[in-house]
Amino acid sequence: TYTVAKKELDDLEKWKEEHRPGPVKVVPQKLGGMESEAQARQKQQMMLMQSKYQQKHKREEYVRAKKAAEEAEILKMKAIQREKAERLQVKKKQQEMQRREMFFEDQYYKTNELLNRLDLGLPKSDSCQIAAHGPESTAWTRSHAYKQALQEDENRRLEEMKQEQRRKTELMEFKKKQEEEARTRAHRNEQRSYLQSLFIFCCILRVNNAFLDRLQNKTQHNGNDQPGYSG
């Protein structure tokens, strides 16, 4: 068994030796493309700066979007609170109007009752004189005066509501104008920040290019000074 195993191993080694791959012949080629080392470094630095600028821009966009969402949520809450306050104010006005109507109605009945009592307590001559005018005319005059007072009060309340609505509209227009101006200023600041970043990037790129040019010139000068250089 040992002999058979040893023979198989020898045969395997012999087969490997016979089928060993020969030397690889590759035609020499120039690697790295047509760009020089300085151009490759410059391109790499530009790509790195562009990547950093994109990441910074994305972070700024995220911060702006988050801030805008928070401001929108705050404005929404303010609008809800303002709507609740307006509803409460309208409810209070309606209750006040109901109290006034009840007060005027009660005042009217009390006044009418008092006048009726006075009519019953007058002498006959005065009673005849009032009867000449007629009870229907007196009741109509009272009713007309009461309705006219209610109409004047209603007109006054409507005018107050119109003025309040006008003030609210003017306030909303003023707030809208302020928000538009704030957005315009933010857009201008964003453009100014972008131009400043671009200017800084160009300055850094110019300094790097000048450094690489000096380094390349120095390398070429050192190579020319080496012994055995044929020019």
From TrEMBL:
Coiled coil: 147-181
Gene from which the chain derives: Epsti1
Keywords, in A-Z order: Coiled coil
InterPro entries (alphabetical): EPSTI1
Designated name of the protein: ESIP1 protein
